[in-house]
Amino acid sequence: MLEQARQRTAEFQSRLREAGIDLAIITDESSIAYLAGFWGYLSVEFGRPTFLLIRPDLPPQVITPLMESEMVGAMTWVENVSTWEDTGARRWENVLAESIGKDPGKIGVEIAALPPIVRNWFDDQMPGLKLNDIAPLLGEMRMIKSAEEIEVMKQAGEIAGAMMQAAEDALGEGRPEYEAALAVINAGTRKAAGFLTAKGWEAFISPMIHNLQIMQSGRDTSMVHRRASVKSLEKGDPVYFCFCNMAQFKQYKLGFDRMFFIKEVTDEAAEVQQAAIDAQQAAIAAMRPGVTAESVAEAADEVYRERGYATGYRTGRSIGMAYLESPELKHGDKTILQAGMTFAVDGGISVDGRLGGRIGDSIAITETGTEYITEYPRKILTVNR
Q: What is the pLDDT of residues 257-290, one digit of tens each?
């Protein structure tokens, strides 16, 4: 992983040189992980930004809080790790200004990902300075995954599969939603631990599955992103699990969703769920190198129209070290799909206030079509407990 990060940085430096950017200041956690190979620090949400400074022809520099510096130094391949402190002369504002210098030339940042406190600092300290958006340069690199990256994502897929099996096993009439959520966390953590060692860089990778479980049952399945509650499951309830903020490993994030039914399923619920499954499968069948992202969305929308449903959802999104990368499977995105791209592909229908139909998988684009990263039955799933 670290050698790949080093190679990516070298490629990024070449792209900066070609674009005429003298200094790139990276603040997004996923971009820092992609290039420098470390994460896990308490960052800007605690008022403590970390920076990765990259110039085309000089070794990169990390600027991180003093309290995080030991871990950062042990995880990253970057040798120049500078520290800042909460008070005094070594505050981050002073360390960053010193590292930028008085005549930095053309500065590039990921504008949409720039934290407000950093944006405000630039406005106050360097009024009139044009910040150039380097997100397209980095996004183009991140769009195509290497074989090694896809292998890590497949491990994440195995973890996600163990989580979904645990979710199904925990369901039953009269059981509370939160018990299934706890089972998901335990199963995912144990599966992830099996891929790790306590040596070297991997010693800093936690197997813990965290974040609140997106889960709804009964009429609430129309709400899409409600969290697990103390509600007890009832006969006939649909139960929806979304692992989009949980299924990840070594920073690589997947999309993965399934719907289950407790003991029985009504005709209407079965019709809605089957339409969601068929729309997702139509989209995946349309995916291969050379087609546009929006044509994949149209394949799914054709199924929705035929079944009498309308959806305002995108059909999918590119995934990697961030939950949302480029491109997106939606109308207006004319990006040409290429081998090595990875996507979360969804089928989703909401019948407001009553029910929903949902399914989601992660896939990789191959030279001839697609390959599933996540595996679980793609059919109407009934739990007979």
A: 999 999 999 999 999 999 999 999 999 999 999 9
Region 335-357 average pLDDT: 93
DSSP string, 66-89: GGGHHHHHHH-S-SEEEEE-SSGG
**383/378 Cα distance (integer angstroms):** 15
User: CA 2 → CA 8, 53, 66, 250, 332, distances in Å?
Assistant: 10, 17, 22, 12, 36
Residue 176's contacts (CB-CB under 8 Å, 6 or more residues apart) are: 229, 230, 231, 232, 233
Pairing of strands 107-109, 131-133: parallel
Q: Quick one: tokens of 30?
A: 């996923």
Which part of the chain has CATH 3.90.230.10? 144-383
CATH class of the domain at 2-142: alpha beta
What is the amino acid identity at position 209? I
CA distance 340 to 238: 35
- Residues 231/209, Cβ–Cβ less than 8 Å: no
Whole-model pTM above 0.70? yes
Q: What is the dotted CATH code of the domain comprising 144-383?
A: 3.90.230.10
Please enumerate in sequence order all residues whose Cβ is within 8 A of that of 239, keeping only pairs 6 or more positions apart, or say none. Answer: 171, 177, 180, 215, 216, 217, 221, 233, 259, 260, 261, 262, 383
Burial state string for 5-34 with b = 16 or more CB within 10 A and e = fewer than 16:
bbebbeebbebbeeeebbbbbbbbbbbbbb
Q: Would strands 342-351 and 316-318 be described as parallel, antiparallel, or unpaired?
A: antiparallel
